[in-house]
Write a structure and sequence with these properties.
With 280 residues, this protein is α+β, with helices and mostly antiparallel strands. The strands form three sheets. A four-stranded antiparallel sheet has the order 1-6-7-5, covered by helices on one side. The protein has a four-stranded antiparallel sheet with strand order 2-3-4-8.
């Protein structure tokens, strides 16, 4: 599942392959869920000026004032190839293809690919509504806290996933951050102290940063197979801290899976009073 760290790594890879290079061929192909197919031929002859990650959005900017915005959703991915190198996926799955004399960048199964001019980019609701990006050097924790507070009645698990509150957290980090901070993901945001929410943001930022170098995503500190995550994907298995059975349930309008330990994350859905943490 692509989360903020995945997009950050993707931007680094594509930046090294594309920036300063002239586009020799470009095209887009219709994919399921794609609202329209952009005319990427307008990029031919342009030089790639920058590649940037904003939360879960990837922006590729060109010297002619155009920008490709993509969002991988649940199934998308960007690949980089040498010219003539066989692709690991079939052409029919390619949403966008950008070619230079040195490399080929392909977005597979990516339902959101837009070509924006400078005016469109400044007005893009998908980008202007984003909350502070956890992987940005200028991450504003106070602003992220303010936006979470605006969602005071929202369950914490849903609020952490809301990219308009804070950008970069996906389902894995939502579950493991709430576990690490001993927060009930089913309680409303109003049930938590500012200090607790800020601690969750710090932990999310630390974990995202730790996973920007590639490899298997790890939140436990152990990269051993099967040991990398605290609760995500471990329903029915014993908690790594206390041995209690890990639970899972769908949450929110999108029915995203939330994993948690009932003992380490005691319920406070019926109380607005913060709990006292157990000694670790």
């Amino acid at each position: 599942m692509p989360e903020g760290d995945t997009i950050f790594r993707t931007a680094e890879v594509l930046r090294a392959a594309l920036v300063g290079r002239r586009i020799t061929a470009a095209r887009a192909r219709a994919q399921p869920g794609m609202r329209s197919v952009p005319d990427l031929s307008r990029l031919i002859g342009a030089v790639v000026a920058n590649v940037e990650a904003r939360g879960k959005h990837l922006l590729i900017g060109f010297d002619n004032g155009l920008t490709v915005r993509s969002h991988l959703r649940m199934s998308g991915s960007w690949h980089r190839y040498r010219p003539g190198e066989p692709w690991r996926r079939p052409l029919r799955q390619a949403s966008a293809i950008l070619e230079t004399s040195e490399s080929v960048a392909v977005a597979f199964n990516t339902p959101v690919v837009e070509l924006l001019n400078d005016f469109d980019l400044r007005r893009s609701r998908a980008l202007t509504a984003l909350g502070p990006d956890l992987l940005s050097r200028s991450f504003d924790a106070d602003e992220a806290l303010r936006r979470l507070r605006e969602r005071h009645a929202e369950e914490l698990g849903n609020a952490l996933l809301d990219q308009r509150a804070v950008a970069g957290i996906g389902n894995v980090y939502k579950s493991d951050v709430a576990f690490l901070e001993e927060l009930d993901p089913w309680a409303p945001v109003a049930a938590f102290e500012d200090a607790e929410l800020l601690a969750a943001l710090r932990t999310a930022r630390r974990l995202l940063q730790a996973n920007t170098s590639g490899g298997t995503r790890v939140t436990t500190g152990s990269a051993m197979q099967g040991q990398g995550l605290w609760v995500y994907g471990r329903a029915g298995r014993p908690c790594r801290r206390c041995g209690t059975r890990i639970e899972v349930r769908r949450q929110g309008e999108l029915a995203r899976l939330t994993y948690w330990c009932p003992r380490c994350q005691p319920s406070r859905s019926d109380s607005r009073r913060p709990h006292v943490r157990r000694a670790r």
